[in-house]
Design a protein that fits this description.
The chain is mainly α. The protein has seven helices and no strands.
């Protein structure tokens, strides 16, 4: 896909693809959030004195793992477990890493560390949803690739 085809009229205006990309992104956000928030909550509750960047790195890894696990579970209802796992592993790590990085950056910027508070959660989730959404749309529109 060339840069000129991205700018062609109507490329970014296909509502059904935005809907599908949003659905895929929401499922990914749910999976990533489980591992990410769980990790941060664990360190917050136990008070284990890890550096913020170490906690955030572990939160990102756990978020990726729980996203893969959730996607495998969802896809296993549509296909064999082995195929579901391979599909989940083959999903766009670019999208998941962007989501995780943005969510954790928002947390650190707004709270000063690896801290979950009720007021920061919706902001983290919104930022985590919006960050990969255009990329997920592009994958659908330009490449026909989706995780569901």
């Amino acid at each position: 896909m060339t840069a000129t085809s991205l700018a062609r009229p109507g490329f970014w205006q296909r509502a059904p693809l935005w809907g599908r990309a949003s659905k895929n992104t929401a499922w990914c956000l749910l999976g990533c959030s489980i591992g990410d928030f769980g990790t941060i909550a664990f360190f917050q509750a136990t008070g284990i004195p890890w550096p913020t960047m170490a906690i955030m790195s572990l939160a990102i890894v756990n978020g990726l793992l729980t996203s893969i696990a959730l996607e495998t579970f969802i896809l296993s209802r549509q296909m064999a477990l082995k195929t579901a796992f391979r599909t989940a592993i083959g999903m766009s790590f670019i999208s998941m890493i962007a989501m995780e990085a943005v969510m954790n950056s928002v947390d650190v910027l707004l709270t000063g560390g690896a801290k979950l508070t009720w007021w920061v959660l919706p902001i983290m989730l919104l930022a985590g949803f919006l960050a990969p959404l255009p990329y997920n749309y592009w994958r659908l529109a330009a490449l026909g690739k989706s995780c569901h």
